[in-house]
Amino acid sequence: MEMKNLALIIDHYACFGCLACEVACKQENGSDYGVKLIEMREDGPRMMNGKLDFTYIVNACLHAECEGTPCVDSCPDDTITVRPDGIVVMNEKTCTGCEACIPECPTDAIRINDNDMVTEKCNLCYHRVDKGLMPACADNVCLSHCIYFGEVDDIKKQIAAVEVKRTRGAA
Amino acid sequence: MVEFVYSNAEKEVEAYGYDEVIKSHCRMCHGGCGVLIYKKEGKVDKIGGDPECPIAHGTLCPKGIASTQIAYHPDRLTHPVKRVGPKGSGQWERISWDEALDTIAEKINGYKADFGAESIVMGYGTGRDNEAVIYRFANLLGTPNVLTAGHLCYGPRISTSIITCGSNPVVDYENDPDCIMVWGNNLVIANSDEYKGESLAVCLEKGAKLIVVDPRMTRLAARADEWLQLRPGTDTALALGMLNYIIEEELHDKEFVEKYVHGWDEFVARCKEYPLEKVADITWLPVEQIKAAARMFAEADTAGIQWGVAIEQQVNCADNNRTLMALMAITGNLDRKGGQVLFETAKNRNASQFGAHKMLTKEQKDKRLGADRFRLAGHFAIQNPKCVWDAILTEEPYPVKMAFFISSNPVLTRANANEVYKALEALDFMAVADFFITPTAELADIVLPAATWLEMDHVADFWKRHGYILPRRKAIQVGECRSDHEMLNDLGKRVGQEEHWWDDFEGALDYILEPLEITFQDFKKMKFIRGEVNYEKYKEKGFSTPTGKVELYSTKLEEWGYDPLPKYVEPHESPISKPEMNDDYPFILVTGARSPGFFHTENRQLPWLREQHPEPFIEIHPDTASKLGIHNGDWVTIESPRGKVRQKAKIFEGIHPQVVGAQHAWWYPEKKKGNHGWADSNINILTDNSFESCDPAMGSTSVRTLLCNIYKEKTA
Q1: What is the pLDDT of residue A171?
Q2: Considering CB atoms only, which of B5, B68, B222 is closest to A53?
Q3: Which of B226, B395, B424, B637 is the most buried (most CB within 10 A)?
């Protein structure tokens, strides 16, 4: 079956901030100290919907879930391309470090590496995906199983099913 | 929850051209998880999860993945060294293993002859599955002094559970408890014991109710049906209040308490001393919330308490544990499927047998430092550290001349660090085995290069209470590093213990497995062995206690001269016990909340993990910070009567305005001067180790709860 809309989607409700995804990414992609292609951020504790709440937000490129992929248009050198399967790939080799893409990203998922002044972002481990492997962070490392990889619609159905289970069917 | 989708190891090998994949069992924390080690050109290239692991089901944590960064770290100690400058000077010279072990053996034999074997202290921190080996060496040597973290970590769970219900009750995640009460624990990121965060996460995703007892808001607390943000150190009062309410409302399992509890009437009378209004005053919690939580726990069909180390590092250590076991017991959840199970181990030789405790003569056992003062600890071969520091510094009741610390960094991890440092400096001779030259190792005479879990064969988890043993398979050799087990196997033979050790440590592994009628080579071909799984074993066999029942009234504690019933004692330093300290030290300090990448003092030199957490921080409520003029990221001085240190302010609304939460075990491997900044941010400079501040039975130090002051660091 041809894959069309590949993305990495995090079920943030389930995330416990264990940070295994960040290190699994480092192990796979070897990004330098200070450059995180996937990054966990704390949200809170703060008042949310009338109660003190505390969640973790795992941030990475949205790929097929990104509307309009503005980074692609912002790049003067065609360094960022969208593959037919929805993976948005940044080619570090042709990047000139102009940084035009950075402010365009709706999730602040593009990093500049201060060592070589080249931008980097999550390429959804396409080198693994093309060989039938899961992206490193989604390869079952996550203890809360909150990182989903696949077709956007399928993932959304799976997350909805978990939400029902989580409340044992209660509203 | 994502369906389990595993990358196929065969595909990984094909895609990356790996030469070999080795199944093994990680040991970067107190737990252990199944892993796949991918090798290329003789080196570990990647660590992945092992989906066949019955404990973590193929999930991993940052520490496990980053194991390669320890193994191949440029600062790693890869050969033995001896110190050639003053203590702490950082001047070392390479020596051979033979010279190192012969020197240590000569010192041991000398001190034993001149001062008795008790003048030699063996020590470990949180062990690398080496606990039983170190006890074996010490017991054969004849020294009763083995200084571990056992007084304040896990040791209390083991010893209090053995005297109360026979063994450590472990939450039966496998059978989906309907309600989980997480008490002073953050299993999803912490260095866990039996089960890992994955099991808890999966239960919650299947709809288990969640109660969290924690003075700090964690993600678990935020998700909880009830989050009880209690005043630090008041756990026993809360548990007794819950027990009293459950009994008054008759929510307890009447048949169970009638048949299987010892001392029920006395216990009920004690609980009555804790009406909810009184408990609410003590704990700062609303009566209605305590009721709601107690009812949710008691009314659940099956429920478990995920307990952790935080409640053990208090003056109420033993009674905290005992009241939680009482909650498990009176609600009928003890040894119940889906509740909290006393798992049976496989029929291998257990850690206690391997540890050769019976080889220590009574005469030597009676010399165990502190055993007369902290008698629960003493009966489980556990020691309070101050008893050892005092003997080093005063030579009373006898001199301690030598210490050998294996995977232990006490100048960072033991209370009242300045005293610890002074004591270690005063030792005649000290040896250390570790991965790096740590601040503690800098005070040693000889440092031995220890192997990581990647570099050893072992019967992993054979001392644990989840009932599994799993093969750890050696994947690599780094420099001249040796496992602690191999080095003691060798050293034992140099101090006259030849008949009790083996040609190499594989002989010991065969010995552990012998009752199962397999060798380690056989075991290596297996995935794991699990003990027989049975529930409600007490119906046939009773509980393994003196009365055969759950001893809510402890006959052992009574025999040792303690109150046989649990009671709440106010923390040694609190706004209530020490109101006179209020002006100078107005805040309650809690310490030691875990961060995912660090294991106590370890891993701060590993780039992947340090990047996530470059500096220590102290959590301060925004109202408090604003009153003190402290902003997020400011360096803050934290001060107690014992001293002061610095950590960075983290404005954090999930903590009470009168409570601040500092991190533990911080040092700076990158700092070459001042012994790696051992005193800069080390929270144990502030903690108390006076005997009055310790649990009277367990000797646990109150490193979690004390009084402090904080202020914005003054610029020079």
Answers
A1: 41
A2: B222
A3: B424
